[in-house]
Write a structure and sequence with these properties.
The complex is a heterodimer of chains A (226) and B (378).
Chain A: E1 2-11, E2 19-29, E3 34-38, H1 45-52, E4 60-65, E5 68-69, H2 75-85, E6 86-89, H3 101-106, H4 116-129, H5 145-157, E7 163-167, H6 175-190, E8 194-198, H7 202-205, E9 212-217, E10 220-225
Parallel strand pairs in A: 3-8, 3-9, 6-7, 7-8
Antiparallel strand pairs in A: 1-2, 1-4, 4-5, 9-10
Chain B: H1 2-21, H2 23-58, E1 64-70, E2 73-75, H3 81-86, E3 91-97, E4 99-104, E5 109-115, E6 125-128, H4 130-136, E7 143-147, E8 153-161, H5 167-170, E9 173-176, H6 178-185, E10 194-199, H7 205-215, E11 219-223, H8 224-262, H9 266-277, H10 282-313, H11 321-324, H12 342-368, H13 374-377
Parallel strand pairs in B: 5-9, 6-8
Antiparallel strand pairs in B: 1-2, 1-10, 1-11, 3-10, 4-5, 6-9, 7-8
The chains are: A alpha/beta (226), B alpha+beta (378).
């Protein structure tokens, strides 16, 4: 579904503090699977995830989404692709404080201009599907870590994306909540979605839900085990 | 189109939610901004209302006034002048006027004594201006005593108090009949203070003035349009003075508002990053923030302008009146006729809302064009 071809990514290019986060990464991500990017801190997992999720463009190399080169597209087109194809679950959840869980879930759909009733119903269904229906009007800062993550997942699903991108999804969760997250993952795969995540949590890496683990070190692929 | 409207509704919805989430900052901004608009709008509303008021009042005044000058000073009109003017072509009506100033040591104020042209009060009676009536605490039927310049004491019964609508020009007025006036000021018979002329054809006013100056070289014709222009420039000058006095405060407020509006907090920057990462376009973010600043600016403008309107037209511009209204000791107290000028509103709107929108837009644009992957690292 997503192909990376000899990807390089530099930060502060041409400046004294130039830093190459990724070097020569070639990778194919299969659809309807859970692919985990693993590696120590600074290995380039998150950078690779931002490239796969069209949040950033590579310095060199090509990114293909459904055989279409998206690496050179301007930001406007990338935004459109992001909105239609990807749903993001961030490590810190990145919910908008002061808004209710329901409002947070509806947020990615605002630029699409759907009728309000339809959008609200969709958002309520997503929250109910994640056992959060009763907390829909609560402000997100009043929710527990696990609840916040489920709100973030519901938000990622609101535009019905094919691919869910999750950055260190269990970093702020205890074991029970991490297992709950893995259950949600398997449900997403059953729904026909593709999941890409970064993690160095053994509970996730070794889980049977994860189809493939891609290991990174110093910005290079070490191993790509199925 | 429906999609566009739906999108804007969502953006406004989110904007309103954002505004309530940052209550303290936004209320502070609205307050400072409203104060700024209030000060500017009060000055402009008051001066334009005063200009209109003056024009309205002067509309009834004679087209030409003739004063006699002796050694560059205003002197009495001697007998015979009125007859000589009456022979000048184009002059429709000539009337000698009698008026003078009187210092009242009781309230330390100057009054203007004038002989009433129409319906003069009966002997021993006067009609007084509302400012004088207020200061001396008199009403119709009371007796007022004045010691004339010759030292004699004169007592007059107040026949009536002039209506408050005309207070801008009648606050300190005392109207009496000719005989009482001449007796009070020891005015020689046949002499007048000045002469009021009406001219049949308004186009000929300047020609008549030239003829007057030629026929009576020791006199000075004053045209109504000149008086009007003088008033206009006095109010312009005062408006300028008031704005100059206010400028330091306005500048301080403006800098504060600019600083508050243009600085994006870390929380706001984070939010912009989140919105971009979850699929909002740079344009959506900018539009949303534009709505936010427009709502703040327009709300503040409305509050400031309405407050200024109430201040000027219901509280007689209590804060700025000492600078912008008359110079007499008896400050006129009157309710101005509400007058709103569209161009004035547009100018004020342009000089307050527009800079604010620019101040807000630049940092938002800078935050909105950052790469959305930054939020992944935050």
């Amino acid at each position: 579904m997503i192909e990376l071809d000899d990807i390089h990514k530099a930060f502060n290019q041409g400046q004294p503090n130039e830093y190459w986060a990724l070097s020569g990464i070639s990778l194919t991500v299969a659809a309807r699977q859970v692919t985990a990017l693993s590696g120590p801190s600074g290995s380039g997992k998150t950078t690779l995830l931002t490239l796969l999720g069209c949040l950033a463009r590579p310095t060199q190399g090509r990114v293909r989404l459904r055989n279409e080169d998206v690496s050179g597209l301007p930001e406007r087109f990338l935004t459109e692709i992001r909105r239609r194809t990807f749903g993001f679950v961030f490590q810190q959840f990145n919910l908008v404080r002061g808004l209710s869980a329901l409002d947070n879930v509806m947020l990615p759909a605002y630029p699409l201009g759907l009728p309000y009733g339809q959008l609200r119903e969709k958002a309520e269904n997503q929250l109910a599907g994640l056992d959060l229906g009763h907390r829909r009007n609560a402000r997100v800062e009043w929710l527990s870590g696990g609840e916040q993550q489920r709100v973030a997942i519901a938000r990622a699903l609101i535009n019905d994306p094919e691919v869910i991108i999750a950055d260190e999804p269990t970093a702020n969760l205890d074991t029970a909540l991490s297992r709950q997250f893995l259950d949600i993952l398997s449900r997403l795969i059953d729904e026909g979605r593709t999941v890409l995540l970064t993690s160095h949590d053994p509970l996730v890496i070794e889980s049977s839900v994860v189809d493939r683990v891609v290991r990174l070190r110093d910005g290079r692929l070490v191993d790509s085990a199925d | 189109m429906r999609l566009w409207i739906a999108k804007q509704r969502y953006l406004i919805d989110f904007t309103l939610a954002s505004l309530t989430r940052r209550k303290t900052k936004n209320i502070g901004l609205v307050l400072v901004f409203s104060l700024l608009v209030f000060a500017l709008a009060s000055v402009t509303l008051l001066t334009s209302a005063l200009r209109q008021e003056a024009a309205r009042v002067l509309a009834d005044s004679p087209e030409v006034l003739l004063q006699r000058m002796v050694a560059g000073r205003h002197d009495l009109i001697p007998p015979g002048y009125i007859e000589r003017i009456g022979r000048i072509r184009g002059v429709q009506q000539v009337e000698g006027r009698l008026w003078g100033y009187y210092y009242d040591a009781v309230v330390k104020a100057n009054y203007t004594f004038q002989v009433a042209r129409e319906n003069p009060p009966p002997p021993g009676r006067i009609v007084v201006g509302p400012g004088l009536a207020r200061f001396r605490g008199v009403q119709a039927g009371n007796v007022l005593s004045f010691r004339s310049y010759s030292g004699k004491l004169f007592s007059f019964t107040v026949d009536a108090v002039l209506p408050a609508e005309s207070e801008l020009v009648s606050a300190d007025l005392v109207l009496l009949n000719e005989a009482d006036f001449r007796a009070f000021f020891d005015y020689p018979a046949g002499h007048f203070t000045d002469i009021a002329l009406s001219v049949a054809n308004p186009q000929e006013v300047r020609t008549v003035a030239t003829k007057l100056a030629a026929a009576l070289p020791d006199s000075r014709p004053i045209l109504r349009e000149e008086v009007l222009r003088t008033y206009q420039s006095i109010f312009d000058w005062r408006e300028g003075i008031a704005l100059a006095l206010l400028s330091a405060a306005i500048l301080a407020f403006a800098i504060l508002a600019w600083d508050k509006a243009s600085g994006l907090s870390a929380e706001e920057k984070r939010e912009i990053g989140i919105l971009k990462a979850i699929g909002w376009e740079t344009g959506d973010v900018i539009r949303m923030k534009l709505w936010e600043s427009m709502l703040i600016a327009l709300a503040a403008f409305l509050i400031g302008y309405l407050a200024a309107y109430v201040h000027v037209f219901h509280f007689s511009a209590a804060l700025f009146a000492p600078v912008l209204k008359g110079w007499a000791v008896l400050y006129p107290s009157f309710t101005l006729l509400p007058a709103i000028d569209g161009l004035q509103i547009a100018t004020l709107l342009f000089f307050t809302v527009f800079p604010y929108a620019v101040a807000v837009l630049v940092p938002i644009w800078r935050a909105a064009i950052t790469d959305p992957d930054a939020v992944m690292r935050g």
